[in-house]
Amino acid sequence: MAAPALRMAWLLRAVAWCAVFAAILGVLVVPGMHGTFPSNVVERFDSISLVLSYAMGVLLVLATVLGGWDLSRLKEIPIVGRIAAVASGLVVVGLFLPACATRLPPIGSAMLVIAASSTAVIGGIVGSRAPHTRAASIALAVFASAALVHLLAWHVANLGGSRASTGLWNFGRGISTAAVVLEAAGQMIAAAWLGTRQHPKLGTKVAMASNFVAMLGAFLVVLFASRATETSPPWQLMLHASLGDAGVSPPPFGLGAVATFLAVAALTLGAAVSAQPVAVGAVTASLTLALIAHGQLDAPLRALAAVTASVWLMVASTDQRAMWRSMRTPAQK
Predict the structure, then answer these.
(1) Sorting pLDDT into bands at 50, 70 and 90, what band is 244?
(2) Residue 332 counted as domain residue
């Protein structure tokens, strides 16, 4: 039987690609289509987005369950870490299922962020011990830290609003600014990993080109969205309306545009990572899911994506066959 990370690489790549398409539709396309495109077009894209979201949810649950089963049998990982990761993952799955039918209350969203971040931090610590999963694991842990800081900022800002306290509101904005910086650091780690991938014939040229295209694509999307006017074409108005809801709350000090850019770059960079043909599938898929989730773990699908990435990074970190495959030279591949 093949090693777990290699045996399930096809499923994880399928999950990653489904997550990329679902996230692009759900973040950049569908939210801004209402009022800018005919109703029949909007309904068609709504249906496609809904199908992709449910498919993403089913695939994530399946991948998490299969990965959790493999994780529970890994004696290389301390039993305390395995129990904590599995327990936190079960909390996320348990909250995800009712979230498919109704919106979670604020306490449910907070529990979702804490449980998903706990699993991600554990996965980041375990995965960082192996060379082939280190970069992806560190990026995942940084994103989880950003999610916790976002949660703290949101609660402080809400407290300031309820008490009409400008000081608390500004303090919440300062915390939100720190969260944006953490998320930028996580994306820089992911971009650095992508830029060092080796192609059998072209070396790092393909990876560097993918990195450049991902960053340029995100920049152009934000640029066109910011310059939209009443006479702009519908697609530009769509981007403007979609990215209007992509910022963080409370707004950070001086980094509002950066936060919007990071929300788009997470999608384009995730697509570039998932398209890498020579890297180990479990690692690329996990990093893709970490980018799709980034620091916004209050959304059930993103929280579940972070849990799936955590579980499989832990499994892949102990997979010796996956490690040696990732360390082979381009000529050997």
Answers:
(1) confident
(2) no
Range of the domain at 54: 4-327
Q: Which residues of 300-315 are buried (b: 16+ CB within 10 A; e: fewer)?
A: bbbbbbbbbbbbbbbb
Measure the CA–CA gap between 238 and 33, rounded to whole angstroms: 5
DSSP per residue over 103-134, as a string? PPPHHHHHHHHHHHHHHHHHHHHHHTTSTTTH
State how far the Cα of 58 lies from the Cα of 11, in Å rounded to an integer: 12
In a domain? residue 64:
yes
Provide the sign of the torsion angle of the four alpha carbons 125, 292, 306, 176, taken in this order. positive
Average pLDDT over the chain, rounded to an integer: 86
Answer yes or no: is 333 within a domain.
no
The structure's pTM equals 0.90
Structure tokens at 153: 């900022």
Residue 182 has pLDDT above 70, yes or no: yes
The answer to whether residues 206 and 194 touch, using CB atoms and an 8 Å cutoff, is no
Cβ 282 vs Cβ 312: under 8 Å: yes
Overall residue count recorded for the chain in this entry? 333
| Distance in angstroms (rounded) separating the CA atoms of residues 308 and 59 | 10
Residue 247 has pLDDT above 80, yes or no: no
Taking alpha carbons only, the member of 98, 8, 3 closest to residue 308 is: 8
The tally of domains found in the chain comes to 1
**250 preceded by a cis bond (ω within 30 of 0):** yes
CA 6 to chain centre: 22
Q: Is 277 helix (H, G, I), strand (E, B) or coil?
A: coil
Average pLDDT (160-186) is 90
